[in-house]
Amino acid sequence: MWWLADVQDVHRIEDRLSTLYVEHSHVDRSENAVVLVNRERKIHVPAAMVASLLLGPGTRVTAAAMRLLADSGTAVCWVGDHAVRMYAAGIGLGRGSQILLRQAYLVTRSRERVRVARRMYAMRFPDEDVSELTMQQLRGREGTRVKRLYRQNARRTGVRWIGREYRAGEPYAAGDDVNRMLSAGNSCLYGICHAAVVGVGASPGLGFVHTGSAVSFVLDVADLYKAEYTIPLAFDLVAAGQTSERDARTAFRDKVADGKLMGRAVRDIKDLLLEESAVAEADEDHLDLWDDALGAVPGGVNWAAAYADDDGPEMVGFTGPEVPEP
What we know:
Blueprint: E1 17-22, E2 26-30, E3 33-37, E4 42-46, E5 50-55, E6 60-61, H1 63-71, E7 75-79, E8 86-89, H2 98-107, H3 110-124, H4 135-157, H5 177-199, H6 216-222, H7 230-239, H8 245-255, H9 260-273, E9 288-291, E10 295-298
Helix pairs in contact: 4-7, 5-6, 5-7, 5-8, 5-9, 7-8
């Protein structure tokens, strides 16, 4: 099992292919590879080389494939058409809870939360001192910066820019071509950032700038890279007459094909949440039990004088005929 394996036995999250989207296909297993089968082709994919597998409409997956993905620490997400929406997700590569506990500690203390938010803005304003700015000032500074970026890219490409328009739940229905390309590109960026967040063991919902959403922290992380990836890409596509959602997805895929964005996101998340001395221990699984007086005690130990009788309810199951695994 992946949680019992040594960390070096599986590929590090930053070295993996960030996301693999599958639709209208059968997902099975062949030795240590995931096999994707449809009417047109059959593809073998090493499970340990994929950070997250996105299962779209019309997809069937076998228990053998899911077991391999779990052993490889590959996150599995059930998504909508073209991976626009995520409905459910399985466990990722992160094995320890240190990052999650640290994230919860930081986000529930106002002073620490503001400090992390300032560090996020400092990544976007490398030449400015934001150490004393309030959240209101930081939001104003960020709004001005983004407007300036839109104007600069409009002048660079000659594309007319009116303003950002976005309709919640229908990101591709509002605005002009540039707005639709921005929404399409951002959805791809969110997928990579979501894989990175889950992969290191952090919570997608515990955001520092964004709040109230199940993906608040994903949005926080994605905002670090929009100025470099999705904003100029959207204007370049419209200037070239490429205005379909597929154009945005394929262009973004080509832009991140070198794999550097995933590794960068992982490093940035750890830098934001962890002390420098704790980064090396972030993936360790201590298997402890919490204790209100001692902090933690070893797990895997029966702390009772004798085993208690188990009179709990029986488990109810539904089984079909056994099918041999490949």
